[in-house]
Amino acid sequence: MGHTFPGACAPFGIVQLSPETDTIPHNVDGKYQTKVYEYCAGYQYHDPTIVGFSHTHLSGTGHSDLGDILIMPTSGRIRTNPGTADRPDEGYRSRFSHSTEKSTAGYYEVVLDDYGIKAELTATQRVGVHRYTFPSEEGQFILDLGSGIYNYEGKTLWTNLRVVNDTLLTGYRITNGWARQNYTYFAIALSEPLRQYGYVDHQRMKYNGFWRKMDIHHNFPDMAGREIVGYFRTGLSSEKQLTVRVALSAVSMGGALANLYAETSGRSFDDIRNATALCWEHELKNVEIEGTDDQKALFYTSLYHTMINPSVYMDVDGSYRGNDMEIHKADGFTNYTVFSLWDTYRAEHPLLNLLKPRQGRDMATSMVQIQQQSALHLLPMWFLMANEGWCMSGYHAVPVLADAATKAGFPRSAKVLEAMDATATSPWIEGMNDYLQYGYVPYDRCGTSASNTLEYAYDDWAIYYTALQAGNQEMAERYRKRALNYRNVFNPELGLACPKYKDGSWKKDFSPLQTYGEGFIEGNSANYSFHVPHDVLGMIACFGGEKKFLSRLDELFSMDLDKKYYEDNEDIEEECLLGGYVHGNEPSHHVPYLYAWTSQPWKSQYWLREIMNRMYVNNIDGLHGNDDCGQMSAWYIFTAMGFYPVCPGTDQYVLGAPYVPYVRLTLDNGRTLEIRADGVSDVKRYVKNVLLNGKTLTRRYITHQEILDGGVLEFQMSDKPNKRSAQKALPYSLSD
């Protein structure tokens, strides 16, 4: 699980340069290929061959696209197809060994065994830089513009490649994938001049006009087709090295050239590699920790993951392609893309709003711009490369905007409120007309009705809270009422959230444990019934009171969940489970913290450490679940520090228990917060007392402003639960 890539990127860069170990088609003649799920990031550690190095990837997602502009250095006979994993010699791919792989922040290295070529990769935000060391003084490479992740027939709509001169190539490709129309322009600069080049088109055109007069496939500088694969031969200096710089743009070839010159001109491969490493050092050093080597590796790897996506999506002059496919100029902000919002509103965006408030504001601004450019007037749901991907449910850009307003200085302007309201009333949102009519989404009209209702109610709360803070009382009251709609899917006989029909009756033969076909998306009632982060006390009442609530919560973590409930669900695997709690899928991430609203808060402290120990392990398969653009990793960072944003949009972080003995945050305002938990361990996992700047906290949360003010947050640890905690005041809940 995890679907991560091991390549080179700069913080928040649109270029994520990485090896592809195979290119499995998403479908063949319309039939889904189940193995493709493993290749969401293009790289599988257990594969024996590398197909090539492409420049765009998604980090840890469960669905995919991209893999644009694949380059593979080769030697000997030219091959223009990749071959297959079981017959690699029939194509340009190469065998490799993990013993020659090196991967650090901003740098990747491997030896391609079939060719004896050492490949090194680094990157800036918009440029991928390759350095190939060849065994002879001739260097050649394949440029496959038809290759991609989820590489089904017809995905590539058009490709173009021009040889501008003997060291400069430009072009573009247009694809139809998860991003319905993705424009990727590029400019490629070579360190050595071309001696020979050519191409083949793997989807020959039925009409090619009068181009047939010329030999367009050999040393012809204007190449175009559905899936062209170019080959290029150069002479090399005595060092036998070829450097290839690939700049990307969504705007134009001119934009790609400008990006190339701005970010790499006059700089060697090693200059760029060192500068990118320093960039990562600058981003990561704002959080210092003490702990074991494994804890440090997991912590900083997680922090690194939180700064891959979202990604900068504009040229160096501020030009970017908008949701309307027009070219816009970012005025006073950096435009971003890759918003996996069903996942990242929970912890990824709140972490950025805490540690990187400028980026948090710019991401929120980007979302409002998307809504302004949308033909449907919608905030993004799952947005990538100027396209709405429509994946998952809810309208979770709303809580991201609410959280950025509360924590990162994002304005609660009339335009922002209008964008929220337009999205939350749109007939294009699944089941919205019914939701507005009945107060819930009926199961006979939508297969994920119960989870949709729960998610919509929380998003409605985020609008209520934002409107309230902005002084718009009418809007606040309207959405306060909608925020209570979660009650409409709680079956009072079961004390659980259940799918409900349009006539008001409940689904019969209902299974709270089944993870598909029961009204919930990628989850079950046993987990999703706890999805009321904005009104935990009201939710407890729906369970039938604290005693029943605690019983359900205890059972979730301690049960032995039969495989029949998840074995056919590709998003939930056994390694992602702790009892019946699904940590590898995001809707449950706040659940361990819910004990803070009960008389037994120490149970959070127990289970949080169990989750950390079991779901995050320092090995190649150590992330148990899909990271989903940084969400799993952001959860780890917050939990390691000892608090978590259960309800993004409020200014509160619910206290848990730190995982490491010391964390030092250097905040954007220049102040520092030290978090101390002396002696914390698997044995001493319980919190005896919490002090903020020497004073005992009498509540179970810390505020955002208290973190920004800096100082020392001290957790006094014990091997026994403190059942008489001084922390009495409960975190926020809409209902008292």
The number of distinct helices, counting runs of at least 4 residues, comes to 17
**Poorly predicted spans:** none
Distance between the termini: 41 Å
- Quick one: CATH superfamily of the largest domain? alpha-1,2-mannosidases domains
How do the strands of the widest beta sheet line up side by side?
A: 9-10-11-12-20-16-15-14-18
Number of strands: 40
Helical percentage: 25-40%
Which shape, going by the Cα principal axes?
globular
CATH fold-level label of the largest domain: Glycosyl hydrolase family fold
| Secondary-structure-derived class | alpha+beta
Please state the second-level CATH architecture of the largest domain. Answer: Up-down Bundle
CATH uppermost class of the largest domain: Mainly Alpha
Cα Rg: 26 Å
- What is the typical, i.e. mean, pLDDT? 96
**How big a fraction of the residues is strand?**
15-25%
Largest sheet: 9 strands, antiparallel
Number of domains: 2
Structure summarized in a few sentences:
The protein is an alpha+beta fold. It is globular and about 80 Å long.
Task: Present the secondary structure layout.
Elements: E1 8-9, E2 16-20, E3 27-28, E4 31-32, E5 49-50, E6 52-54, E7 70-74, E8 94-95, E9 102-104, E10 107-112, E11 117-123, E12 127-133, E13 138-144, E14 156-165, E15 168-175, E16 182-190, E17 194-201, E18 222-225, E19 228-235, E20 241-249, H1 253-264, H2 269-284, E21 287-290, H3 293-305, E22 311-312, E23 319-321, E24 327-329, E25 336-337, E26 339-340, H4 341-344, H5 348-355, H6 357-373, E27 382-384, E28 387-388, H7 397-407, H8 414-424, H9 432-438, H10 449-470, H11 473-483, E29 490-491, E30 496-497, H12 525-528, H13 536-543, H14 546-558, E31 577-578, E32 581-582, H15 602-615, H16 631-641, E33 643-644, E34 652-655, E35 662-666, E36 672-676, E37 686-692, E38 695-696, E39 701-703, H17 704-709, E40 711-718
Parallel strand pairs: 36-40
Antiparallel strand pairs: 1-2, 2-6, 3-4, 5-8, 7-13, 9-10, 10-11, 11-12, 12-20, 13-19, 14-15, 14-18, 15-16, 16-20, 17-19, 21-35, 22-25, 23-24, 26-27, 27-28, 29-30, 31-32, 33-34, 34-39, 35-36, 37-38, 37-40
Helix pairs in contact: 3-16, 5-6, 5-7, 6-7, 7-10, 8-10, 10-11
